[in-house]
Write a structure and sequence with these properties.
mainly beta; 5-stranded mixed beta sheet; 4-stranded antiparallel beta sheet; WD40_repeat_dom_sf; WD repeat; WD40 repeat-like protein; repeat
Length: 426
């Protein structure tokens, strides 16, 4: 009896930093579900020789545990030179396939990276239906290519910064896939229109470096950001005069004496917030964590100021988190304790209030909720070394092999540790 593989592996030629699973089947290959088994990866080497690559499934037979072990599970389909390491890499949203601007060629998809600039890349697959097009040999001439379309680095609003400062992260708008918002160490966030290669607006978002940014699901106006000043803020492009502080990390108990230069920081130094991610099925809820922190804070936009849930399961600093796409999405967290933990928060968040429409205001009231501490993940996986990043696949439909065996549909979670990426069936 053959059983479905629950773990696939890819060995990169370099340490992996940025990672994202493609959001849909390859263009023109909707009938080949295995084309959904692709991810983009970026290297992290301390020089100007970094790479990004698109990795794909070698052969769908690796999804079924039989004697198909002669080949690696994944192969590099194409790669491109990136210079500085990509701080973030993301595929275009699945909604982009329905947009007119993406129809120039049905065989291309966009992906984007940040680093010293926002770069938009065009990935082209071979589109051939020969399922063994690259089994057992490197796909040097398989027709896969990755070409840079645009590189955007704006003038900085901040004094003494003439060229754009390094970008730490970005968020791609699902509803309007021509919009990308980037976060920078120069305290700014910039909204770009990648169709016209222009910066639509740039605003000073934080007192210090901005580390992550995310669009409110379903909105083209509201985004949130976190940064080194320890605050989580919401911005509305329709009224940029003010922002809403949704959460600030508590000030440290031992405050250092004031420095001779009081303008260095109006607020005592606190723990920076590194990542922000919305629950895709209820965008009232977002998850974040502190730099060097081992707990995850779940915040509710309707009761800002305090986390409504805190997840305590890691024993070392957390490096990455991400929500799945299922109706009951799991939150995955991963860190230096070599663990990836999966949390099911549906029982804690459902029924608190009806999901709010994206157009409504940020501060709709909700009953005051006491913070709940959750210490039991629903699943845990231990990797051989520290986990630096993770990425969820979309829901991948079942496949029937030539042998007649079918795989189960569902989601996969890719985790990066060192040079190894493991894809785990959830």
């Amino acid at each position: 009896m053959m059983t479905q593989t629950t773990m696939l592996q890819y060995e990169a030629p370099w340490p992996v930093h940025s990672l994202d699973w493609c959001k849909s089947s390859a263009p023109g290959q909707q009938l080949r579900p295995r084309s959904a088994f692709r991810f983009g990866v970026g290297s992290f080497t301390e020089n100007y020789q970094n790479q990004i690559a698109v990795v794909g499934l070698q052969d769908e037979r690796v999804l079924v545990e039989d004697d198909f072990t002669d080949y690696p599970d994944f192969v590099t389909l194409c790669e491109a030179y990136h210079g500085y390491p990509a701080t973030s890499l993301q595929w275009q949203p699945a909604s982009a396939q329905n947009h007119a601007w993406s129809q120039k060629s049905t065989a291309t998809e966009l992906l984007a990276t940040t680093g010293d600039a926002l770069r938009v890349w065009e990935y082209s697959g071979d589109g051939s239906t020969n399922s063994s097009s690259y089994v057992g040999r490197p796909p040097i001439s398989s027709g896969h290519s990755l070409t840079m379309k645009t590189a955007l680095s704006g003038q900085s609003k901040v004094q003494n910064q003439s060229a754009g400062a390094p970008l730490t992260n970005f968020s791609w708008n699902e509803k309007a896939p021509n919009l990308i918002v980037t976060a920078s160490i120069d305290t700014t966030c910039t909204v770009w229109n990648i169709d016209t290669s222009t910066a639509m607006t740039q605003l000073i978002a934080h007192d210090r470096e901005v580390y992550d940014v995310a669009w409110l699901p379903g909105s083209t106006d509201i985004f949130v950001s976190v940064g080194a000043d320890g605050s989580l803020r919401a911005f509305d492009l329709r009224s940029l005069e003010h922002s809403t502080i949704l959460y600030e990390t508590p000030a440290p108990k031992s405050v250092p004496p004031p420095t001779a230069n009081p303008s260095a920081s109006a607020r005592p130094p606190t723990s920076p917030l590194l990542r922000i991610a919305f629950n895709p099925s209820d965008s009232n809820y977002m998850s974040t964590f502190h730099m060097d922190g081992s707990d995850v804070q779940i915040l509710d936009m309707r009761s800002p100021g305090q986390p409504v849930i805190e997840l305590r399961g890691h024993h070392a600093p957390i490096n990455a988190l991400g929500w799945g796409s299922a109706e009951r999405p799991l939150l995955a967290t991963a860190g230096d304790d070599c663990q990836v933990l999966l949390w099911d928060l549906a029982n804690y968040t459902q029924g608190a209030a009806s999901p709010r429409s994206a157009g409504s205001r940020l501060n709709s009231p909700r009953p005051d909720a006491k913070k709940r501490v959750v210490t039991e993940p629903v699943m845990a996986y231990t990797a051989p070394s520290q986990i630096t990043n993770l990425a969820w696949s979309p829901q991948i439909q079942s496949m029937t092999m030539n042998s007649g065996y079918s795989t189960a549909s569902g989601e996969w979670l890719a985790i990066a540790s060192g040079k190894t990426i493991k894809a785990l069936k959830v």
